[in-house]
Amino acid sequence: GVKSENEKFAGGLYTTTIEGYIPTTGRGIQAATSHCLGQNFAKMFGISFEDPQGPLPNGEARPPLHAWQNSWGLTTRSLGVMIMIHGDDKGLVLPPRVASVQVIVIPCGINAKTSDEDKAAVEERVADILKQLKKAGIRAKSDDRTTYTVGYKFNHWELRGVPLRLEVGPKDVSNNQVLAARRDNGEKTTIQHAELVKGVRDLLDTVQSDMFTRAKATRDANVAHIVDWKDFVPALDDKKICLIPWCETPACEDEIKEKSARTNIATAEVQDEKAPSMGAKSLCIPLEQPQDKPIVAGETKCVSCGKDAKRWALFGRSY
């Protein structure tokens, strides 16, 4: 959406933003911004160019025009937002499209009683799997360390958020299959070796889609449509972000932040004790406004100050 006057880049015309929602704390977080700076800075610093359409009376130089400027910010902060949204108690949970390692292949079922032939067969199969996946452009690697247990390796790569784990043991080799385990939900399935690349690629696509769908559903379920101020702070305390009819004035935003700050933090949650005492600020004015409850000019009133509302705006406690 678009940032409010208070939250936009100082000196610019307007700022657009991508806002994340962290369900664990119920707080919004800015992931990326784009600023239309207009001509303000060009005029201050003398950034100009000749008007290609300008007149040339008597051979004079074309008149100058001041440049329109933009500024974009998309940094590693977005990775932090992604980690906070998808991570769980085991560690990172990375979407396949951005994971540096998409598939980890781990030899399993090998112990002191395993024959040399079976060990060699597993090693050969793991090498073949890696060769096929890498050739197909899938970022894969194997963990063939012999000084660690299989369970240790599972935890090692789960902690790092690798989207898909392939387990290969003597029985899998004889059955011409691999056991695939998803990092996002722990589900396991078998993939036939003859359909390895297609099966892995389809599974990675499914993980990517499911992670997005779950995150979006969680976000949507925690957007509270508020039309009465008495419901605003309780919604915030319930870890929701509030979509409200708003007048868009800076003074009103300051008032909302002040009125929604909680002075009694005795019930604050341990994992984020600053959040309950923090007042709500505008996250953005969504580019896609609610179609079922359009703002009616002169009728729809701002939830906070009672003046005429201009658009629906998202407010929430924020990082």
Automatic annotation (TrEMBL):
GO terms for biological process: prolyl-tRNA aminoacylation. Keywords: Aminoacyl-tRNA synthetase, ATP-binding, Ligase, Nucleotide-binding, Protein biosynthesis. Signal peptide: none annotated. PANTHER family: BIFUNCTIONAL GLUTAMATE_PROLINE--TRNA LIGASE, PROLYL-TRNA SYNTHETASE. Belongs to the class-II aminoacyl-tRNA synthetase family. This is proline--tRNA ligase. GO terms for molecular function: ATP binding; proline-tRNA ligase activity. It catalyses: tRNA(Pro) + L-proline + ATP = L-prolyl-tRNA(Pro) + AMP + diphosphate. InterPro entries: aa-tRNA-synth_II/BPL/LPL, Anticodon-bd, Anticodon-bd_dom_sf, Pro-tRNA-ligase_IIa_arc-type, Pro-tRNA_ligase_II_C, Pro-tRNA_synth_II. Residues 229-319 form the Proline-tRNA ligase class II C-terminal domain. Its EC number is 6.1.1.15. Gene3D superfamilies: Anticodon-binding domain, Bira Bifunctional Protein, Domain 2, C-terminal domain of ProRS. It is an enzyme of class 6 (ligase). GO terms for cellular component: aminoacyl-tRNA synthetase multienzyme complex; cytoplasm. It comes from Entomortierella chlamydospora. Coiled coil: none annotated. It comes from the Eukaryota.
